[in-house]
Amino acid sequence: MRVDHRRARSGSAERTGDRVPTTTAAHVTVFPDRGNDERLQRDLSTVVHWLHRYVSEPLPHIGRSGPVCPFVPAALSDDAVRFSFHYGVDGRDPDELITLLDNELDAFDRTAPPVGRAGTSLASLIVALPDTGQDGWVIMDEIYERLKEIAVSRGLMVGQFHPACDERAVRNPGFRVSRSPIGLFAVRRMAPHDVLFLHGDARWFRVYRERFGAHFSRGKVRDPLMRELYRKATQVPMCPAVFEDASSAGEQNHRIATAALTNGTERRPWRS
Question: Using alpha carbons only, how large is the chain's radius of gyration in Å?
Fold first, then answer.
C-alpha cells in the first residue's frame, strides 16, 4: 500500500500550528492491508512529525551538536525512509515480535540500496506497532538484544523506541533519548559511527571492524570519542564472529572479551 506522505503530515502540522516541510510521497506498507486507512493516516502523521520535530532537531541534552540522529534529516529529504505499520500486534508475544522483525530485517537487507563509498546509506525503515502498550513496550526492550544480534549479523543496525523507553544518549547517560509517541523499531545499514554502539561486544565489534577498520587506519574518522573506543576495542582479543550458539568455552571467552571492552559501562546501542 502506498500512502501520500504529504497528506499524512498536513494533519499533524495543522493540529500543532507548526507546519512540517513536505516531501515527495513515502513508501508505506500496512498489515493487515484493509480496514485501517483512517488510523494509518493519523499514525503516519504522528510518526513523521516526530521524525521531523524531534529526531531531526538539535537538542542540548544529547551532549553534542547536530540533530538527535544525523542521518534522518537527509534521509527524509531524499525520500529514503520506508514505513511498515503492523496493526493488531500488541507486542506481548516475544516470539511473534522477533519473527515479525526478523522478516522486516531480511526484506530491508535484500531491497535497500547498499552503502556508498563513504560507508553510509540513507536507506531507513520504520517498523511501527501502534497497538503496543505498556506490556508490549516491556517486551520490546527485553527482546532488543536478540534483535540486535540478528541485525548486526546482516550489517544492519536496529533501535527500539516507545513512550517509556529508558535507553540513554551515548554522551549523556542522564537523558532518555529514545522516547517516541508510539512503539516502533528503526532500521538502517551499519555506518562508520556505529563504533559508538558496537565497541562493547566482541562479536559485534568484529563485524564492524571488517567493514570500517580501513576508515580508522586511513584517518577518515576524526571524532575523538569514536577513535578512542575503536582503539580500546582493537586491543581486546577478538573471538570469531559467529552468531549461532557457541560452545561453553567460546561463550566464556566472549564474556571475558565483552567485559574488557565495556569496562563495566552500560551499552547504549544505535543512538548517538
Answer: 19
Q: How far apart are CA 181 and CA 72, in angstroms?
A: 17
- At 27, list the grid cell: 513508501
pTM of the predicted model as reported, rounded to 2 decimal places = 0.80
Q: Which three cell numbers stand for residue 51?
A: 521524525
Which residues touch 270 (CB under 8 Å, ≥6 apart)?
A: 148, 157, 158, 159, 186, 194, 197
Q: Which residues contact 162 (CB under 8 A, 6 or more apart)?
A: 132, 137, 140, 178, 179, 180, 182, 183, 184
User: What's the sign of the alpha-carbon dihedral 147, 205, 170, 226?
Assistant: negative
Tell me: the pLDDT tens digits for 150-205?
999 999 999 999 999 999 998 899 999 999 999 999 999 999 999 999 999 999 99
Number of H helices, E strands in the chain: 10, 7
